[in-house]
User: Fold this.
Amino acid sequence: MLHYAAVFFVIAIVAALFGFGGIAAGAAEIAKVLFFIFLVLFVVSLVAGLFRRGR
Assistant:
C-alpha cells in the first residue's frame, strides 16, 4: 500500500510540473489517503506485536 501512495505522489508531482491542477490534486488526495491508511495499519500491527511479545 505504501508503494501505491508513492506512485500517486510521483504522479501528482509530474502532473504539477505540467500544470494539470485537477490531475495533480486528485493524485495527491489519493496519495494522502493511502498514506494515512498505511500509517494506521502500521500502528495497529506495532501494538499487536507488542501485546503478542508480552505473553
Observations:
- The radius of gyration is 16 Å.
- The chain has one domain: 2-54.
- The CA atoms of residues 12 and 25 lie 7 Å apart.
